[in-house]
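Q: What would this chain look like folded?
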Amino acid sequence: MAELSRTTGVSVPMIKFYLREGLLPSGERTSPNQARYDQRHVRRIMLVRALADYAGLSIADIRELLAHLGEPGHSLHDQLGVAQKAVTPRREPGEGEEWDRAERRARELIERHGWEEDPDSPAMQAVTGVLLTAAGLGYDGMLDRLDEYARAAELIARADVAAVAERTDLEGMVELVVVGTSLGDALVAALRRIAQAEVSARLFGDDSEGPRCPKSGDGPKSGDGPKSGDGLQSGGPQGGDGPPDGDGSGR
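A: My prediction, written as structure tokens:
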């Protein structure tokens, strides 16, 4: 166990706690007071640490999630879905006409892009909450561009799943879903801010004639760099492949 502690960086008392809580399988007994641990135990400890440190899951939640790993009759898609749901923040559903309107708008968005999602899932509740807040604050510009957000999300999701598919072990895949989602959220948020500054400079950088309001789909042409004093002209090509808004497809 001391060697397992040195390899993982987790203290011996914590490893014993994992064993007591059923988060870590027992090692192979070599004597009454000794056990042999292998790479499988190293991977499990790293997964438990990721679930606790990155996802903030409780011991009970981690135990429940680990119980699903390797269960017969569950596809890889289902097991990764369990991991994703475990790390998605939950919120209480709202009520009233405004909530119902936001919920209906969320369902229509998902259906337009050919996706399937449980309307009561944590992710759908989160989408509904965001749409409710945006509508309440009068952010019509954001609401009018929901399909653009959805297309961008699918591109990111394709990259996420491709990275997971490169792993060969289930626990490694689950760990990447947990850690990769957290790191990916931070990466996308940072890149989004950099891109916002770049697009803003192109649209509003030369304000001698007053700012131009960007239209849906405005963005820099692929491969074009900003020119001194030039902003992006309205009506330029959309920044990415995909059908026009409202055509009923997201692929």
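Confidence is low (pLDDT under 50) at residues 220-251.
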